[in-house]
Amino acid sequence: MKIGVISDTHLKSCDDRIRRIVDTYFKDVEFVIHAGDLVSIEVLDAFAGKEVKAVSGNMDNEETRRKLPERLLIEVEGFKIGLTHGWGQPFGLEDKLRKKFGEIDCLVFGHTHRPCNKVKDGVLYFNPGSATDRLFAKLNTVGILEIGDGVKGEIIEVSL
Questions:
Q1: Is residue 147 within 8 Å of residue 11, measured between CB atoms?
Q2: CATH topology of domain 2-157
Q3: What are the residues facing 2 on neighbouring strands?
Q4: Is the dihedral of CA 12, 17, 23, 25 positive or negative?
Q5: In percent, how much of the chain has pLDDT > 70?
Q6: Are 111 and 62 in contact (CB under 8 A)?
Q7: In whole angstroms, how far apart are CA 22 and each of 95, 141, 154?
Q8: Which phi and psi angles does 11 have, rounded to 5°?
């Protein structure tokens, strides 16, 4: 199973850029995970026709924060994925976020705008980076999680 992962879109509406990202990079995914900082809930319109699991982030407007939780536990084919955005300084962020969940196989997060795809103590830490914002990052990126014999991640540079 393939899952599209996106974060830190920082958009006020669903625009052509986010639609092109979905059409190009998420056309064959089972569902999409958004790790927060959509800014506007309207961004989720870009994923029409696909199931979406999303959390709110620190830059989201009031409506988005009301509609989306701060964290989710997603179970897929026997694997547990913890989903949250993040907050504060990037130093030590992974450890702070990990404490918010019990037993998980993968922690998906955002906030730093920098991609992360590493295994630590048996848990895949996965941050797709920012798909549309270059603050704190040189490249725009999204991610794909593949669920099979385990959970594996891939970071993809967005070139649109």
A1: no
A2: Purple Acid Phosphatase; chain A, domain 2 (3.60.21)
A3: 146
A4: negative
A5: 97
A6: no
A7: 30, 12, 16
A8: -120, 145
According to the model, what pLDDT value does residue 89 have?
A: 80
User: What tokens were used for 149?
Assistant: 């014999």
Domain positions in the chain are 2-157
Q: Residue 120's pLDDT is what?
A: 95
Query: What 3-state class would DSSP assign to 74?
Result: strand
pLDDT category at 138 given cuts 50, 70, 90 is: confident
Residue 102 tokens read as 């019990």
Alpha helix positions (H), the chain = 16-25, 62-67, 93-98
Residue 98's pLDDT band (cuts 50, 70, 90): very high
CB-CB contact of 135 with 113 (8 Å):
yes
Rounded (to 5) percent helix, strand, coil in the chain: 20, 35, 50
Largest CA distance in the chain: 40
Count of CB atoms situated within 10 Å of the CB of 94: 19
Task: Kindly state the percentage of the chain with pLDDT values over 90.
Answer: 86
